[in-house]
Write a structure and sequence with these properties.
Blueprint (H helix, E strand, L loop, with lengths): L4 E2 L8 E3 L5 H4 L3 E5 L5 E5 H12 L6 H12 L2 E3 L6 E3 L2 H6 L6 E5 L4 E5 H16 L11
Antiparallel strand pairs: 1-7, 2-6, 3-4, 3-5, 4-8, 7-8
Length: about 140
């Protein structure tokens, strides 16, 4: 499970060093793709394969499913960590998420998310108050 918040730097070649706690999960490769709220999702190769199998079950006659599938998969890139545990974030994903040198990487359970630090801080500020004041069931049967 991927947890926590980290602040690595993007180097001049578009690479980051992923948090040490994530390396075992990503040792066999990663898939980076467009995330929602303009971040980059980082899945282990195995997790992405499982996710793809579930996505494939969506009805082909559903326009919203086709649209989601196209955007999600067309932005995907499979990568390997190098010997220094760095991963290259492709230019199209850096542009999509408006990534500069200052990054925030969060663990989101089955995936990591890479955010520009500025975007993460704005998102966190916007959502934290509602999170703190939640008084209804957000996740059915859990909270």
């Amino acid at each position: 499970m991927l947890l926590g918040t980290y602040e690595p730097k993007l180097d001049d070649k578009g690479r980051i060093i992923l948090p040490a706690k994530f390396r075992d999960e990503f040792a066999e490769g990663v898939v980076l793709t467009r995330g929602q709220e303009h971040c980059v999702y980082v899945f282990s190769a195995a997790e992405f394969s499982e996710l793809h199998e579930r996505i494939r079950q969506a009805p082909v006659n559903s326009k919203s499913a086709r649209d989601y599938l196209r955007l999600f998969l067309s932005g995907a890139s499979d990568e390997m960590l190098d010997k220094q545990n760095r991963v290259t974030i492709p230019l199209n994903l850096r542009e999509y998420a408006d990534l500069g040198r200052e990054l925030t990487v969060i663990g989101a359970g089955n995936r990591a998310e890479i955010w520009s630090t500025e975007a993460w801080n704005a998102y966190y500020s916007d959502k934290e108050k509602a999170f703190s004041e939640t008084d209804e069931e957000v996740i059915p049967g859990l909270f």
